[in-house]
Amino acid sequence: LSAADIGIEVDYQHNRLSSDLYAIANTDEDNVAVSAHFGNSYRGGSLTAGVHSNGNDDLNYTSGKYHVRDLSGKRELTSQVSFNEVPDNSAEFRLGAKRDKAEVAFQTSIGRREFVKVSGTVDEIATRTTDEKISRGVGASIELGTAGSIGSNTWTMGVVASGSRKNNERQLDTDLEQTSLSSFSNVFTDQTQELSVSASLFRGGIRSDYPQAATPRYHISARLGRTWPTDNTALQLQAGAGFRVLGNDELSLQLEHGLLGATPLEGQTDESKSSSTFGIQYTNHF
């Protein structure tokens, strides 16, 4: 299908969850998705349909992406819409909720290396089993950054300011009460503002859906942020690498670690939380 600029992708993931804090009824998850990619790096996108299963119920989801980039590569407009995706807002929502989300972003160069990126999002979160609506919100962000290259390696550094406003229910659904501390006051505030700094180094087009010729591919990134009004400080570290095995394929590894230093609640001495993710993926292009 290369002559028609169309590609088909089948993806399977198996996740195993564990936690010392949250009550996880099903530690194993399976995810199967089929995607159709169309267009090229200047104009195109993808459509995805899949099913996420945690042992108790299946969650059918769909998503679509589209991008437009000028010939100079200095300006890009991207959009994304998803229905019934697994949320990443918090552990409670990750385990017992689903989300509809739409996002639009525009990035443009403002100098030889400098760029600015603005984006906006709207989303709605509901319980996974009963479909009860529990949160609706909007968000916006602006990023000022700089990028350059060292040989075949690309580096970026930037500062991001973001904010969001949510219309939340006053109580969490029982499906989302994973700990005695689970409530909207410490899971999902009505409004937040965040200021963060980030840096990354990568090789091989890790942000593209299209098959890459470069091997090995790798990336390493770090992000440090402060959130108000909860006065939380968060650190996120990511690293990954991909290598060819037989030729037209790739074996990749991904490691992510996050640390959240939260202001202690009344009667609590330490509200710091950490999470780690490790993944292995094998891809074959045919």
Number of helices: 2
Multimerization status: single chain
- Class from helix and strand fractions: mainly beta
Order of helices and strands: EEEEEHEEEEHEEEEE
Q: Give the overall silhouette.
A: globular
Percent in helix: under 10%
Strand content: over 45%
What is the end-to-end distance?
10 Å
Uncertain residue ranges? 179-185, 265-269
Number of strands: 14
Q: What's the main sheet like?
A: 14 strands, antiparallel
Q: What integer value in Å does the Rg equal?
A: 20 Å
Estimate the mean pLDDT confidence: 82
> Which strand order does the major sheet show?
1-2-3-4-5-6-7-8-9-10-11-12-13-14
Would you write up a description of this structure?
- The structure is a single chain.
- The chain is mainly beta.
- The chain is about 5% helix and about 65% strand.
- It is globular and about 50 Å long.
List keywords for this structure.
single chain, 286 residues, mainly beta, 14-stranded antiparallel β-sheet, 14 strands, 3% helix, 63% strand, globular
